[in-house]
Structures are given as C-alpha cells and as structure tokens.
Amino acid sequence: MLDPTKADLRKRFKALRDGCPPGERAAWSRRICAHLGAFCAGRGIQAAGTFGPFGSEVDLGPLADANPQLALFFPRVAGLDPPRLAWGPGPLEPGTWGLQEPAAAPHALPPVQLLLVPGLAFAADGHRLGYGKGFYDAVLAGLRPEVIVLGVGFELQRCERLPASPQDRPVQGLATEAGITWVHPEGTS
Questions:
Q1: Which domains does the chain have, with CATH numbers?
Q2: pTM
Q3: pLDDT digits (tens, 9 = 90+) for 7-23
C-alpha cells in the first residue's frame, strides 16, 4: 500500500479539524493559550510571533488577552514567489486569503524569542504539514537559532510521521490542549 501524499494528508487533517465542534475547539484553544502563557512567563519571554486563526485553526486570541505584557507579532503575506512573510504588531485587518494580518509589517523576520507556527498536522519528529505554500519554511530557514519554535495545534492533529521534503523545517515542540511536548531541546532543531 502506498503512503498517503501530502495533498491526501492535508485533506484528511483539515476535515478532522473542521469536524470538531466549534465549542470544543474554543475550549481547547483557551487551554493551549494557558499553557503558552505559563511557558512565556516561566521563561521570561517578552515577544512572540503568533498568527490569527485561519478557518478551524487554534485561536490564539486568549494568549494576548491574558498576557498583555507579551508583545505579539503577526505575519502578513509580503510575496508569493518566492513565499515571504513580513511581521508586525496589531491591529489586524483582513488580508490575503481572508487571513487576519497586521496593518503594518516592517520586519522581514519576527523580532521575537518564541515563534508559534500553525499547521494541519504535526509528526513525532517535529515535521509539520502546512498548506503547501512554504511561507513558514522560508521563515524558519532565516530565523535566529536562539528563537524557540513551537508548532501549535490540537491533539487530533498529531501523527507518527509525515512525508518531508528537503526544504521542510521541523519545529522544536508542539503546544496542544494537553500541554507542550518537546521534540528537539529548546534552541535546537
């Protein structure tokens, strides 16, 4: 039997996430934000790169609400070929593909200590499956090595392994409603 393609896996994990009741996703999102808030407080993190939810993704809004001292930077699509994101603080406005993006995004890379990365699926080895455009892989390739990189998703988005291409960059750990699980020690990938 052939292994599923990235396209097949995208469909499967998107349908799985979309199929969860919105109330459950909201409760899980609040728990994820509580774990992330405690992590940031415990590590003295003052600035984090985050994202506005796209469809049924984790909603990280409660992280900002509960941690007003935390400076948050959001991505804005700055180019499609090659894929480029620019980063800035709120306020957010509708942007490319209906994503919530910062009105101004002056930074080529997020000026942060922690980067939170969305995805459709997350493998035990730290690889993630995104939407296939390569935006976050490009960011991760240029990120300072001391920046901690966590994937953010629901427990149901975990899997044992994912197909990976040479340009796919793993995350160091995964934040879910169950807590933060480390794949690679902080500061390595």
A1: 6-90+100-182 (3.40.50.10420)
A2: 0.93
A3: 999 999 999 999 999 99
